[in-house]
Please model this.
Amino acid sequence: MKEIVLSGIRATGQLHLGNYYGALSKFVRMQEEGVYDSNFFIADLHALTTHPDPKILHNNVKSILSEYLAAGLDPEKSTIFVQSDVPEISEMFLLLNMHVGIGELMRTASFKDKARKQLGIKTDNDNDDNIEKEIIGTDSNKRVNAGLLTYPTLMAVDILIQHADLVPVGKDQEQHLELTRRFARRFNSVYGVEYFKEPANFNFGGNAVKVPGLDGSGKMGKSEGNCIYLLDEEKVLRKKVMRAVTDEGPKAPNSPMSEPIKNLFTLLELVSTQDKVKFFTDAYNDCSIRYGDLKKELAEDIIKVTAPIRERIIDIQNNDEYLAKAVKMGAEKARARASKTLEEVREIMGIKRFF
Ligand code: TRP
Model:
């Protein structure tokens, strides 16, 4: 029996270089290793927790699906599906929620973060545990939707309903995975069964890559507005890179790099050759570096990575028949396993049918 791999990306917009190196390229690698039963999906129900615009949701799903396929995910080799095409997930979500505490959900870092954003509360301190008061005590007409609170339950169901062994996700999802393991153990112990196994994170033995943004600090992220999208046109991409934040340049040989410069080198390491990285590192160390040259090379090398993918994305986006066929195949395979799990869960929980 092959180990089951499962991961997904929320359908909130186009994918950027951070998604590509952090997630997508790993998905493709896992698929190509050929030793896993690999499953990759588009989390459109999860997207509803923050992006409820019905006019763009489907397009977001479509662009991620096209990006999956353009990057090399292959419906013949992997199960590629849309979360909402597997209604068993929604039913099991309701069932699993009966064993999840609102306290543990409220203490989840991503919830505190996003809830505060929805309430418009600014705080840099995620150790601050006033979240219950902030939410219950709020007299504004802003509300935190319950879907945001139960986000980890839904994610746990995505994973458990497929009995996944390995879940390739970034550091920011580690806590959700920990909750998934906790819910699995709890279900087993409440019902005295050995039914769910505990899934593990997976990142090819290395650390999760953190792809920095172009604004000098932090990681690339849609909400930071510092992204290079796989679909960016060459002109746009060059402009973005040329505008990336730098500093005044090294003042003395071998000085430490400031964060914006380190970030540019991190990007260069992802897309360029060792030689080029060494060339610019040496130039930095002997103070002869010109950031304009560095950025030019960086932009061209990013384009070498993204241009062929971009072309394929555009082709695939225009091929509705192929898209439909890919997700139909995926939905069938994903549903087969999901409905078996759901039946067994209902049975374990004592839900029986009269007919
Ligand atoms: N929460 C994940 C993210 O934001 C997306 C996701 C939803 C997911 N369900 C999942 C990832 C199940 C792995 C497995 O990136």
Notes: Residues 3-100+150-210+320-349 form a domain with the Rossmann fold fold (CATH 3.40.50.620). The longest helix spans residues 320-349. The pocket of tryptophan is lined by residues 6-10, 43, 46, 155, 158-159, 167, 169, 173, 176 (CB under 6 Å).
